[in-house]
Amino acid sequence: MKNCLLLALSLALTVQISQAQTPAAKPAIPPATPQFRPAYHFSPARMWMNDPNGMVYYKGTYHLFFQHYPDGMEWGPMHWGHATSPDLVHWQEQPIALFPDKLGWIFSGSAVVDENNTSGFGKNGQVPLVAIFTHHNAEEEKKKTNKHQYQSLAYSLDEGKTWTKYEGNPVLNNPGIPDFRDPKVSWHAPSKKWVMTLATKDRITFFSSPNLKEWTKESEFGEKLGAHGGVWECPDLFPLTLEGKTHWVLLVSINPGGPNSGSATQYFIGQFDGKTFTPADTQTKWVDYGKDDYAGVTYNNTGARRIFQGWMSNWEYANQVPTSPWRNAMTVPRELALRQVGADLWLTSQPVKEVSQALQTGSVKLQKLAVLKELDLSSKLPNLGDKFQLKLSTKLLKDFSLILSNSRGDELVIGYDQKANAYYIDRSKSGMVAFSDKFPGRHAGPRRAVTPGADLTLLFDASSVELFADNGLTVLTELYFPHEPLTKLKVKSSAGVLIQELNYARLANVVK
Ligand code: FRU
After folding, report:
1. Is the C-beta atom of 329 inside 6 A of ligand 1?
2. Residue 385: per-residue pLDDT
3. What is the reported pLDDT for 508?
4. For 331, which DSSP code?
5. CA distance 173 to 171
6. Rounded CA gap, 428 and 478, in Å?
7. Which among 182, 253, 315 is the best mutation to test ligand 1's pocket, defined by most ligand atoms within 8 Å of the CB?
8. What does the alpha-carbon distance between residue 132 and residue 172 come to, in Å, rounded to a whole number?
9. Is the CB of 182 inside a 6 Å radius of any atom of ligand 1?
10. Which atom belonging to ligand 1 lies closest to the Cα atom of 253?
11. DSSP string covering 365-409, please?
């Protein structure tokens, strides 16, 4: 009898243990790919990341939170991961800030400095940082009530280190809209209230609040404007001044339906009076024409600077990119501005100055390079490889391409197509491309500048390139995964181009 009991007990234990160790419980991690690990683009050390969240500057520190699944390399129950930086270049990953709870997973949102303690969360004069995020309730989703996403709060009284969820959550209930998420909140000084910009399926809904806890609907925007190839997500609304005049910029990410298919971010420029956004024109405009810049929004509390950062991937293949043990990184932080070209007003993005200031380690300057058909620069650019910045300028822009390659035959081609008047990145043969048929291809963005000359800044970081043309009027961000580093560079031009100046700088490895 005793033996029987022991046997039964040990069998039960074995079953329990083997259940706990089933492969399904812990997904396999593919072999590590340090060669693709970015140096100055933020990525968590391990596991899955998507959208940037809660970006805020406070007391000398930039806080970057992010959609994170710490237990897998594919999208799963969302947490807010956390990283901090003194300068937007050196990032330190911090403990996870927000975990899923009984109200749901923690989807995208923003964070504000509640200087006047309007929320009442502040204690003993400590200014609260308040996060406003979407709770996504997977159980409720199954019931198909369309009410599974709602907005909630968390606050920090130790400058962002630890967070407490508000016991009165949610603060904004869902009226029955299946996509009701990604609150971006900022203080609207003229009307002395908080404004929430919320993605609500195929439009943006604006809400206002005196205290972050009670929200009143103000207006809707965009049902019939802009691109509608997919659901609207991750909006942002902020003012920018050009020649003394203030304009309001509304960013709206859309997935799918981007200009080169999949995920991308469009924007509108207009006026906002605290209640209603009125666009100045109806053209569809894109922040970035590359395939890998999504869900980008701007930091709160940065004074006159408007700093944007996006997720450097695309939902078409984000779950398949061949990196390990992490998946996905952020774009480099970018300074936004407005520029008038003829009758059109455009948003420009340029890498924040901190990046080249902090990272350059010696540079090579070449002048007056006449490219007649083909010029091989490989021997002139020492240690050409994976982490560097290239700047080019010409007084007369003509058809040309930069071809980065290796002895394996991988090629990444970046250029200007005069006939189409467009910049492009062609990663069709850039190395590992077969993990998704949506990955390889040539992706172009129209040139907006009308000057005869042009300048280009290119940032490379192991597995990504960001192209800022004409001082940020046309931007393209793309990933690539070469079999070996691309250590050769040729310039080609069938029309013949004179490169006035080419600047090459290695960028030092900075991420811990
Ligand atoms: C955008 C998005 C958001 C959502 C989050 C979920 O990439 O779909 O709309 O809050 O990702 O992870």
Report:
1. no
2. 84
3. 72
4. P
5. 7
6. 12
7. 182
8. 10
9. yes
10. 1
11. EEEEEEEEEEEE-GGGSTT-SSEEEEEEEESS--SEEEEEE-TT-
Residue 108 CA: which ligand 1 atom is closest?
Answer: 10
Residues carrying CATH 2.115.10.20, the chain? 4-19+45-351
Catalytic residues: 51
Which of 136, 137, 234 for a ligand 1 pocket mutation test, highest count of atoms within 8 Å of Cβ? 234
Is 233 near ligand 1, meaning CB less than 6 Å away? yes
Burial 344-364 (b: 16+ CB within 10 A, else e): ebbbbbbbbebbbebbeeeee
pLDDT in tens, 219-240: 999 999 999 999 999 999 999 9
Domain 4-19+45-351, what fold? Tachylectin-2; Chain A (2.115.10)
Structure tokens at 181: 């998420």
Assess whether the C-beta atom of 134 lies below 6 angstroms from ligand 1: yes
CATH architecture of 361-507: Sandwich (2.60)
Q: How far apart are CA 262 and CA 243, in angstroms?
A: 35
Confidence at residue 3, expressed as pLDDT on a 0 to 100 scale = 44
pLDDT tens for 11-24 read 343 333 333 344 45
CB of 181 closer than 6 A to ligand 1? yes
Residues of the chain with pLDDT under 50: 1-23, 512
Residues carrying CATH 2.60.120.560, the chain: 361-507
Q: What is the pLDDT of residue 99?
A: 98
